[in-house]
Each structure stands twice: as C-alpha cells, then as structure tokens.
Amino acid sequence: MSGSCSLKTCWQELSPFRRVGDKMKENYEVAMQVAFNKDGTRLRNTEGRRAKRRAKKEELVYLNKSPNLCVVKEGQVVMAGRRCNATSTGEDNCDTMCCGRGFEPQTITIQERCNCQFEWCCYVQCDMCTRKENIFVCK
Hints:
With 139 residues, the chain is mainly β. The protein has two domains: 14-66, no CATH class; 68-139, 2-Layer Sandwich (Endo-n-acetylneuraminidase fold), CATH 3.30.2460.20. It has two helices and six strands, in the order αββββαββ. The strands form two sheets. The protein has a three-stranded mixed β-sheet, with no helix packed on it.
C-alpha cells in the first residue's frame, strides 16, 4: 500500500444455510411452552410448579401451539397450493403435506440472476436467465 491511500474490503457472511436450519430444527424440537405471569412482566413455564426448569434466554419458547393445518376451518383448505415432494418418504412428502387430499404436477418458470461477474470496484453485473422447473402442489 502506498502512503497516500489504502483500501480494505470486508464481507460478513452467515453460517451455511443447512447449519442454520439444523440448529433451528434442533431448537424447535425442545422448545418450551410458556405463558405470561399475572403482571404480564415475565414468562413462566406452563407446567407451573411442577416445572423442572426455566427457559434460558437463548432457548426457543412459544405461547400457543401451532394449529393443525390438516383441519379444515371455515371451509378453507389451507394446504391448497402448498409445494410438496412427490418422491420423498420424509416430512415433505405430498401425502403428509397435502393431508391426503391429493396433489398435482405443475411447471413453473423461474427467472434468476446468472453469469455474474465482479466489476472493480465494487459492483456485480449479472444476466437474467429463465428456466422451467417441474413441481408438485397440493390440491
């Protein structure tokens, strides 16, 4: 570097998406249901006095249980249009995701940035590419 000027470029980056997702799922599986105390100033374990532990600041907590999306409420089918995986045997399979109500194939067109190149300094120039993808959605 010369004495007249200097340049330092830094990037911050997140952990890999898979690691973040795994950590969120791990926290979700041990999440604790809580409620506010009478004053509305603190959270307490819903097990009351029998509670064996208190939630830590970094733990995931929830106030209400998630609704069962397979139950039709007020005539609405809430899973219609939900994407699923027809070949999966896991939680994302179409029978589970669509609550046994069926699914159908669709072809969608996706536009995304591609052929990106870094231009000095500090700009990224990309083309827009179009591709078709076959997906399955709940009825």
